[in-house]
Write a structure and sequence with these properties.
Blueprint: H1 9-26, H2 28-34, H3 39-60, H4 66-82, H5 90-101
Length: about 110
């Protein structure tokens, strides 16, 4: 006989959020090797991968109200988008590093 699982949509969403958290944490060693920004990006990634699913789970369990959920999602979105304009492209950053290490540099 085939066992029937009677999960609600909320329970399935919660399980998916937990799976995203586990996969995100497990992928940190790979992402730290791929990014040039190093630890700052890893910490940002870890924060987002743990905070967003936590907000979703608490909201689905009715622990957070709709207003609180909207505020928290807005805050996380603002945090994610706040650093976009200030990021230095990799090529410019690498060029600055090469210039600072050159023998003719007055700062060294």
């Amino acid at each position: 006989m085939i066992a029937m699982f009677n999960y609600s949509i909320g329970q399935i969403a919660e399980l998916a959020a937990i799976a995203i958290m586990i996969i995100g944490v497990a992928s940190i060693p790979l992402s730290s090797r791929l990014t040039k920004d190093g630890m700052r990006r890893v910490i940002q990634f870890l924060g987002v991968i743990l905070v967003i699913p936590t907000i979703v789970i608490l909201s689905l369990e009715k622990i957070l109200s709709a207003e609180t959920t909207g505020t928290l999602i807005g805050a996380v979105t603002g945090y994610l988008l706040s650093g976009l304009g200030s990021e230095t492209p990799w090529k410019k950053q690498e060029e600055r590093q090469r210039n600072s290490m050159s023998p003719g540099n007055k700062d060294s």
